[in-house]
Specification:
Keywords: Initiation factor, Protein biosynthesis
Strand order of the largest sheet: 2-1-4-3
GO molecular function, one term: translation initiation factor activity
Number of domains: 2
Structural class: alpha/beta
Pfam family, one: IF3_N
Order of helices and strands: EEHEEHEHE
Family: Belongs to the IF-3 family.
Distance between the termini: 60 Å
CATH architecture of the largest domain: Roll
Largest sheet: 4 strands, mixed
Shape: rod-shaped
GO biological process, one term: ribosome disassembly
CATH class of the largest domain: Alpha Beta
CATH superfamily of the largest domain: Translation initiation factor 3 (IF-3), N-terminal domain
Amino acid sequence: EPKTKAAFGSVGRRIPYRILHVINQDGESLGNMHRAEALKLMDQHDLKLVLLRENAEPPVYRLMTGQQIHEEQLRRAEKKKASPKPGTYIKELSFSSAIAKNDLETKTKQIAQWIEKKYHVKVTIRQAK
């Protein structure tokens, strides 16, 4: 099982590939180059190399500043937070608009418990006859 990258960040000098496709900090392609050239470029401009696409041939790396890396990490965290997680449960509750006060309080407590357990709650209210 290949290890998946845990976080988006600088790879430092640990680059397992000889030939890389490098993109500069402005998003422009610098083409394919040897690992040593990419490291030299990284040192000259005081930037960090970040792996973007490992599956491409050759792998795509981008030169980024620390600030750019931080912003991208925040963007990815927000995106991950927004996407529904596998195994997320949706609890559904429906009741009539003529529900008795004590029944409404009981169902309200139940909804609060589900929300604490991080369930998604869907409430349906039917109109009384």
